[in-house]
Amino acid sequence: MDWHEYELENGTKLIYKKLSGFHSVAVGVFVKTGSRFEEREFAGISHFIEHLLFKGTKNRSCNEIKIAIEGVGGSFNGFTATEGTCYWIKILDEYLELSFDILSDMIKNPLLKEEDIEKERNVIIEEINMYRDIPAKYVHELFDNLIFKDHPLGMPISGTPETLLRIKREDLFNYINTKYSAENIVVSVAGNFESKNLKKFFEKYFSDIQKRRENEFEKWEGKKEGPKVTLMTKETEQTHISFGGFAYSFEDDRKYPLSVLNVIIGGNMSSRLFNRIREELGLAYEIRSYVKGYKDTGIFNISAGVSPDNLEKVMIEIIKELREIKTNGVKEDEVERSKKFLISQFLMGLEDNLEYMFFIGEQKLLRDRMEKIKDIVGKIEKVKREDVNEIAKEIFNNENFYLAVISPKGDEGKLKEIIGEI
C-alpha cells in the first residue's frame, strides 16, 4: 500500500506513509488556498499569512517556536504556491506529537501583532524588489502576466508592493477564518511513527477546527491569443527570455507524453536545446524547459540567458528545433531515454521522506483522485513516440506562443515575427 488515509468528522484529512529505516518523520499541514484564490486587490495575502504564522501564536512567541523545533534538532519551513499553502516540520520520530502541537497551534491561534505585520510587510516588499532585480527570475513573472493577463494565475504569488500595502490586520484574520477551515486542510505524514499514535495526535490537535465550505477559485477560461511578445527594456549584462504557451492540467493524462517531450526539448543536459544552443553554438550558459500543471490548465516554458546581440539568433534556433520536432517528430531512442530519466528522477526523489510527504500531501489537497506510484511509473512507461509527436503538433502553434524578454535592447515586432514562423 502506497499510503493510508483517515478523515475526521469535521472534514480534516490525514494521509500518511510509514517508511522503514528512517529515524525521522516529516509532517506537513496543507491548506487549499494560494495566489489564485485571492481577490486581485489583496494579491499576496496567502503568502503574507504564511510568513506571519511563524511569528508567534497565542501560546508561543516566534522565538519559542524556533527553539521548540530546533532545540530537538528538527527543521521547519513553509511555502505558498498558486493553489496551496504548506507548513512543515521534519523531526526525529520521538517528537511527532510536538510537530502536531506546533503546526496546529500556528494555524489555529495566530497572533498577528501589528508590529509583526508591519515588519513582515516590509520584508516581503524587499523580497519582491530583490526578485525584480534578478531578471532571470522576474522574466517568468512577466511571462505569467502575458499569458494569463488579469486572471489570478497571472499575478505573482508574493503580490505587489501596492497590494501588500492595502492589507490590514482585519483582512488577514478574515482570510484565515474563511480559508483555513477544516475541509480545506490536509495533514500529510511520511517517515517513522506508530499509526495509533499518529491518529491520536491528529484527533487531539485538529478535531476542533471549524468546518465551513470548500474554497473555490476563478476558473481559467481564456483562449490562445498568440503570438504575443512583451519586452522590458533594462540595462542588464544578459538578455533573459521566458517563452512558451498553454499545456495541460495535472488532471490530464496528456501530461505524461508532454513530460517526455519536455525532457527531449530542454529538460536535461542531453536535451536538444542544450546541445544545440549551448554545446554546438555556445550562445547560452543555461537553457532549459519545464512544464507546470494547474487544476484547470497548464503551461510549457523555455528559458535562457543570452547576449543581447544574440537574442534574435537564439529565438530563431529555438523555433527551428520546435519546428523540426513538429514536422519530423522525435526519435525512438530519445523517447526511451526521456522515460527512463523521468522515472528515475521521480523514484529517487521519493527516497527523501520530506519529498514523499509533499508528494502525497499535494495530491490529496489538489487532485480529484490520488495516483499511486506504480501507476505513475506505468503511465510514463506506456508513452509512445506517436503520443509525443501528437502533443508537439497540438501545442507548437504560433497562436500558442508567448515570449517575455528582459533586455537592454530588442525589437518586439521582429521577435513576434520569429515566434510566429513555426
What descriptors fit this protein?
5-stranded mixed beta sheet; alpha+beta; 422 residues; 2 domains; Cytochrome Bc1 Complex, Chain A, domain 1
Largest sheet: 6 strands, mixed
CATH superfamily of the largest domain: Metalloenzyme, LuxS/M16 peptidase-like
**What strand line-up does the widest sheet have?**
1-2-6-3-5-4
How much helix, percentage-wise, in residues?
40-55%
Report the end-to-end length measured between terminal Cα atoms. 46 Å
CATH topology of the largest domain: Cytochrome Bc1 Complex, Chain A, domain 1
CATH class of the largest domain: Alpha Beta
Overall mean pLDDT stands at 97
- The fraction of residues assigned to DSSP E strands is 15-25%
CATH architecture of the largest domain: 2-Layer Sandwich
Ranges with pLDDT <50 over ≥5 residues? none
Give me the Rg, rounded: 23 Å
Please tell me what the overall shape is: globular
Number of helices: 16
| Global structural class | alpha+beta
Query: Could you give the order of the helices and strands?
Result: EEEHHEEHHHHHEHEEHHEEHHHHHEH
- Number of self-contained structural domains: 2
Tally of strands: 11
